[in-house]
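Researcher: Next sequence.
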Amino acid sequence: MKKSTIIISIIDILTIIVLFIIYGPIPNFRDWFITTALKTGHHQYFANVLYSDKIIIETLKNNVITEFDSDTDASDINFDNDSKNQYDSIYEQQILERDKDALYKLIEINEKDYSGYLVAIYDSSNIDLVTSKYIKSGGQTLDALSKDYDALVAINASGFVVNDKVLSPAGTTIQDGKIVSIGSSNVHGGGLIGFNKDGVLVLTTKSAEDAIKDGIVDAMSFGPFLIVNGKSAEVSGNGGWGYANRTSIAQRKDGIVLFLVIDGRGANGSAGISIKDMISLFEKYGAYNAANLDGGGSSTLTINHEIINEPRGYNYTGPRYLPNAWILRK
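Model: Next structure:
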């Protein structure tokens, strides 16, 4: 009888603790759970299992990222990135200290709650947006796509929609100065993310036609924009995107491009990264313009056609089939 009473008491205490975490006055778990669930591809209903519409709406109001009201200024990028003897920080040293003829440098990211990789690319003129040759039959994993285009480095780019096995990029894409797919440029609160003929990363909310007139050569739709003209986005709470695997792209004022891929969902012990923490990380590495790309199970990095990180979804591990990618050509 005493043993049963003890067991029931323990269960009651654990139940109270769980309910306090889920519904108590401390919003950390609630914010993490709701924002993370709502930004997944197929598991948004998780949020409704535990919380009412009222709580969800209130949580989203407290976790937002403010959109920018201006585009990037291409004239701010000066392409002066020679290595030097003294550095302002360890982060600058990691970027600028390199072999003389290096095209890129792979930097491991190991923070308290997340891990992944940053690739510094020293000549942005060799960066292209490429589309899977098998897009009408489901796309390709990034390593296969990388082999097709003989890429030194590759990361996933657009989100996607699937209809009758046709894998289409979400939003608009531009390649070689031509519109190859059309949709809303404002995907996830961002706009067009791409490069002009001078190798400058351009973040713009203009239409694809106007972006091409302005000189953009390759671009795809996604967001949100994280840093524009050296100014970081204003973020309340975690930014409303929760914590997950993430891929993002940035450019420093000296022209160096940064490919960032952070693992999540337990891959390599990483819980994933929030939008707010991703901005902070880019600030440390001197990003002048930065934008979020598709994440979750799509987040993948390859070096010489080999997958470097650990792509992971909620119910699978391994690379996802993708419509396109940003690559560094050989």
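Model: The longest helix spans residues 2-23. The mean pLDDT is 88.
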